[in-house]
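Researcher: We're teaching a course module on how sequence relates to structure. For the next exercise, students receive a sequence and then see the predicted structure as tokens, so they can try to spot secondary structure elements on their own. Here is the exercise chain.
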Amino acid sequence: MPANTARSVMDSGSYFTANNGATGVATAAAPTSFSDVLPLFTILNNNANNTGRSIYLDWIRGYNTAAGTAGVDLRLKLELDRIAPTGGTLCTSYLTNANDPYVSSGAAVRILPTGIAATANMRLLIGQAIVIPTQGAVFTVGTEFNLKFGGLDGYVSPSVATASQAAITVRQMPPVVIAPGWCLQVPFLATSQSAASSWAFEFGWVEA
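Model: And here is the predicted structure for the students to work with:
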């Protein structure tokens, strides 16, 4: 976001980040089709309905900490739904402005929660985003994807690797607002993967 906007958001005590301490979390062995009951991660807005703050996504970063077997690309769907995920790895949210220690986040960020299915309220924001393009060989540790929300930077990706190596991609996403009581659910697939890969995540957002 522009520097003046970022400073205004920071000063208001409404910019948060979350991560899982660079600890990789293993996927299912063969997530070769999208599953609404086994998303890669979810972000639930637990702020009070009607009067609470909305969550405005800024960026999300995912990086590979343990290579799987035979996976050559990574694809995501983005869904907004009125669900309340459980299980998985719950990340701690941090206010980035230490001058205001009294503001807490209403976000519940979970990595690989289980048993969550889309409902009739679901809004399919992105049907398929290829966030790691198909590689000529299995992607390896250090491969990462970066999602940027609401900007005008376009889509940047590296050339396709012909040998196992780390790739870094940047993918533009539409603006996403998670209203109180709503959840962003992100199903995923890893083409041809036959044994688990592990991923760590970083998130950044504004609540207002």
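Model: If you want an answer key for the exercise: Residues 3-207 form one domain. Helices lie at 3-11.
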